Amino acid sequence: MSRYFFTPLLALALGCGAPAPTALAPTEAPTTGGSKAGDFGPPVGEPIQAELTNAPNVPAPTNRTAPAKVVVELEVVEKVMPISEGVDYTFWTFGGEVPGKFIRIRQGDTVEFHLQNHPDNKMPHNIDLHAVTGPGGGAASSFTAPGHASQFSFKALNAGLYVYHCATAPVGMHIANGMYGLILVEPPEGLPKVDREYYVMQGDFYTVGKYREKGLQPFDMQKAIEENATYVLFNGSEGALVGDNAITAEVGETVRLYVGNGGPNLVSSFHVIGEIFDKVYTEGGTFAQENVQTTLVPAGGATMLEFYVEAPGTYILVDHSIFRAFNKGALGMLKVDGDDALDIYSGKEVDSVYLADKAASSAPIAEASAAAAAGSLTKAQQIEAGKALFAGTCSTCHQADGTGVKGVFPPLAGSDYLMADGKRSIGIVLNGLSGPVKVNGEDYNSVMPPMSQLNDDEVANILTYVTNSWGNEGAAISASDVAGVRATSKAPAGAAH
Ligand SMILES: [Cu+2]
């Protein structure tokens, strides 16, 4: 939310540390606009080695007053990394992570770019930087075979935030495997000072296996062509910006997010739940729009946005094409510490019903899935993981204590119906339930939707938790029990997993 309506004097009186950012009045001509204005002559002084950072970190401002020669060394590495819990993917990276390293230079700088292709790589690669003026954006001059390096130079004539990506055929496949990042070309006077800067980049991923299907998942070209993403992610994996990896700020600080979208296919409707962007430099350009809720970030595009944080708590970053957030991974967190600002917001922490299992700690879920992979999964681990998954997924209706809502949602706590038939209960979670049922002598006649977003491990853990909580006592339910029911029961239309 905004503090830009404060006069600078008032801000001073209130003791705000950072100077109030100067808004460019829409009528004021930008001093930085246009590439003609961006050539400030030859580089001055010794060449500078660029500081490159991995997301969510951003290099320090250049703080320079003259154009420089900046040397960028970027190595392409093809490597297997987790894309989700228990799911691996062979990423192709600029610098070892997805997104690629953040590059920060100043308008007028001359960049001497070195692209190295690691000898263990299988593919040739190159780089097209949208900040380059020149055919191909560097692509033709940077084509590099494994075990080789190439070099080219360009002068950064236009200020702004730009995507770079690999442009080697098949281009879509190289981008889909994670070959993109951001380069910031600061205007000569720099950007307004803020307290925190973070690097967030969205991308869509296409795997042969379904969402969260375990193991090493190959790239699926057909799904990519059909733009049928399995994952939509911030910073290359489901866990990149949640829990302990959340980005942080303190109440009273200004935050700037450099948001990019590598695509290859999807346009992002970038939104932070519980915040309003005070300023959005739409499409990464010079002019700032103010007071924006959701901003479009095109595939192969970027945006800079700023907001002031007044109230503590967890703010959720999403692609507001919302199934992507809750069912494909496009969800991150900004954790804000500080004193309550009850005049601005009376409430408590983020709503677990809204966030479903994303609000719970994912540690027990991770532990159970690692144990399952190692063949050492215990009932106690299943119960812990199931408890985390139950929060939100089932508790919305059956309530956190399993008691349900009389006449509407039947109880799971002490439910004779649940405990009578284990296979039937698995089938209910997989395929839903409708029509009359009697639970502990009470009649219910309603509809439970199929929980088709859950995989076999998740269903097994949830049901092991449910049948061993609130006075229920049962045996552990295994993923293979669930797989058996899934294979033999007929899923209702639209509930196929
Ligand atoms: Cu490539």
What does the model show?
By secondary structure, the protein is α/β, with parallel strands linked by helices. Helices cover 19% and strands 29% of the residues. A hairpin with a 2-residue loop joins strand 22 (433-439) and strand 23. Helix 6 crosses helix 7, helix 7 (379-393) packs across helix 11 and helix 11 (456-466) packs across helix 12. The two termini are 40 Å apart. Copper (II) ion binds at residues 92, 123, 125, 166, 168, 174, 179.
Topology summary:
Elements lengths: L7 H6 L34 E2 L19 E16 L2 E8 L8 E4 L3 E8 L10 E2 L19 E7 L4 E6 L5 H6 L3 E7 L9 E10 L9 E2 L4 H5 L5 E4 L12 E4 L3 E10 L4 E6 L3 E5 L6 E5 L1 E4 L3 E8 L4 E7 L3 H5 L3 E7 L14 H4 L7 H12 L4 H15 L1 H4 L17 H5 L1 H10 L1 E7 L2 E7 L7 H11 L12 H10 L9
Parallel strand pairs: 1-2, 2-5, 3-11, 4-9, 10-14, 13-21
Antiparallel strand pairs: 2-3, 5-7, 6-8, 8-9, 10-12, 14-19, 15-18, 15-20, 16-17, 16-19, 20-21, 22-23
The structure holds copper (II) ion.
Copper (II) ion binds next to loops.
